[in-house]
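Budget justification aside, the reviewers requested a transparent look at the raw inputs and outputs of the sequence design task funded under Objective 1. We therefore reproduce one unedited record. The lines immediately below are the structure tokens for a 294-residue chain.
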């Protein structure tokens, strides 16, 4: 049974309840706090009525209450993006129509192109080449100066527009690395020897006798694409074998695998999905990363 009591120390009346001789002081919340709490409740109810607030399920799926004023943040963002696109439409039209060199020499236009190219790269290219264009195994690093199909503005534009080994585009970049082992062109020993010779081109051969034998295999099978000295041929998409940059790995095991099974990586023809202004912007952005060729 509760019993009113005044605390001797504080002079505050207790709630009248006692637990094991311990009494609870009756200290109600301040009035300002109570009023703030009530105002917050009223504000929440009013917000729920006025603004879009609650999701609910209908026969057509999930939707939400629209609110009295019909405000929608998504529409605001959509309108802002449309305004940005409209403001850039003139510049993008020029980027789509002007020669790439002329765009590169126009600072104001180049600023727009690089911004559009960076955005397009993040949306379309980063999943393979990485957000920083650093590439990964099987996907070229676009920051260095090693280009399989050429690194001039025109070369990059052609690669972007028509892709590499892209079915359905008659102008796609096309060449194949033959599967010398799987197709029975070379035996296992010959493949091991030619891999040793390829390592020797960058000063990494461990077996000079094997490399000497491999040079004969290289001369009969590989120089048509990679050249007498192994420096490659961009017109054919044949990589330079004399440097330290390797798309699929440069140790002997990786080279043996490449020679045995061949390589035939694919890149989409972006002219099927992107307009010319965006492709030009992408070209200039990739070229600006630091590895473009004159």
């Amino acid at each position: 049974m509760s019993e009113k009591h005044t605390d001797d120390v504080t002079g505050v009346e207790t709630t009248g309840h006692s637990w094991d001789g311990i009494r609870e002081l009756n200290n109600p919340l301040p009035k300002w706090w109570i009023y703030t709490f009530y105002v917050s409740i009223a504000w929440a109810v009013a917000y729920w009525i006025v603004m879009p607030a609650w999701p609910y399920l209908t026969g057509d799926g999930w939707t939400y209450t629209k609110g009295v004023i019909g405000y929608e943040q998504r529409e605001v963002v959509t309108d802002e993006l449309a305004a940005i696109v409209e403001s850039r439409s003139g510049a993008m039209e020029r980027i789509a129509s002007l020669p790439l060199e002329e765009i590169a020499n126009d600072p104001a236009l180049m600023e727009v192109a690089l911004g559009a190219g960076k955005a397009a790269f993040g949306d379309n290219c980063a999943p393979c080449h990485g957000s920083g264009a650093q590439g990964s195994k099987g996907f070229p690093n676009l920051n260095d100066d090693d280009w399989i199909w050429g690194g001039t503005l025109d070369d990059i534009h052609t690669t972007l527009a028509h892709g590499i080994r892209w079915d359905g585009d008659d102008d796609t970049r096309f060449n194949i690395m033959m599967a010398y082992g799987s197709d029975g062109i070379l035996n296992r020993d010959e493949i091991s020897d030619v891999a040793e010779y390829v390592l020797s081109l960058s000063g990494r051969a461990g077996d000079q006798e094997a490399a000497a034998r491999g040079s004969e295999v290289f001369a009969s099978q590989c120089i048509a694409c990679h050249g007498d000295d192994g420096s490659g041929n961009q017109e054919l998409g044949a990589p330079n074998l004399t440097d330290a940059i390797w798309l699929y790995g440069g140790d002997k095991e990786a080279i043996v695998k490449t020679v045995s099974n061949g390589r035939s990586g694919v890149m989409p023809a972006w002219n099927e999905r992107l307009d010319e202004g965006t492709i030009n912007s992408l070209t200039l952005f990739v070229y600006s990363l630091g590895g473009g060729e004159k």
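The chain has eleven helices and four strands. Residues 5 and 21 are 12 Å apart (CA to CA). Computational costs for records of this kind are itemized in the attached budget.
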